[in-house]
Amino acid sequence: MANEQEKQAAARASLRFIEDGQVVGMGSGSTATYFIRFLGERVKAGLKIHGIPTSVRSHDLAVSLGIPLLTLDECQQIDVTVDGADEVDPQLRAIKGGGGALLREKIVASATRRLVIVADSTKQVPVLGKFPLPVEVIPFAQALLAKKITALGAEVRPRMKADGKPFVTDEGHHILDCHFGKIADPEMLARHLSDMPGVVEHGLFINMASVVLIATGNDVLELRG
User: Fold this and answer.
1) What is the mean pLDDT of residues 110-127?
2) Is 105 a catalytic residue?
3) Fold for the domain defined by 133-200
4) For 69, left (φ over 0), alpha (ψ -120 to 50), or beta?
5) pTM score > 0.85 for this model?
6) Which one is catalytic: 4, 6, 41, 105?
7) CATH architecture of 2-123+206-217
8) Predicted pLDDT of residue 2
């Protein structure tokens, strides 16, 4: 319950970055869901924005709340995106993708002037790596990539659904959850993964966040790069 209250506090605090007339990227995951709900309240009260969601789930929630939407086909410049994270370090580097939407999340983040990460206190870490790093892969290359990433020092597990079938992303790919332990050099690891044919995207978000809002109890800490 405390974590849920912190998620709500961080999400609500992010609303101060939203202004009339903006195009707003809407993230995925539990904390981003709170943001979308709060944004829907503001829209109902008269705020005029357009949203670009990062997942089918976020899209459906936004539609249910009456938030006007755009696609990247219609708009390639986003003013501000609010999204969650699975981990954030002191350099504002993050691991994302626990919900499986890392590809669309990173695409939207790359088109955004200001990326605001919202998180509860459990997501703040001194070194990335306690949370397994999601790597989105083409199914054809999954076994090969699992072997290559294991050679980098990770324990690799294909993400599965409760019914025992592979988890499939919105874009039709699979996810390998890669337990590296403490990641000493996130930039180098990001390069290694990006260079592997068949890797569609990885969950290391580096030099992307402008602001991180971490809720601790009743307080919200603002971190800037």
Assistant:
1) 97
2) yes
3) Alpha-Beta Plaits (3.30.70)
4) beta
5) yes
6) 105
7) 3-Layer(aba) Sandwich (3.40)
8) 67
The domain limits of the chain are: 2-123+206-217, 133-200
Tallying the residues shown for the chain, one arrives at 225
Question: Can you give the three-state secondary structure of the chain, one letter per residue?
Answer: CHHHHHHHHHHHHHHHHCCCCCEEEECCCHHHHHHHHHHHHHHHCCCCCEEEECCHHHHHHHHHCCCCECCCCCCCCEEEEEECCCEECCCCCEECCCCCCHHHHHHHHHCEEEEEEEEEHHHECCCCCCCCEEEEECHHHHHHHHHHHHHCCCEEEECECCCCCECCCCCCCEEEEEECCCCCCHHHHHHHHHCCCCEEEECEECCCCCEEEEEECCEEEEEEC
Closest CA to 180 of 141, 225, 135: 135
Mean pLDDT of the chain: 97
Do the two domains 2-123+206-217 and 133-200 of this chain adopt the same fold?
no
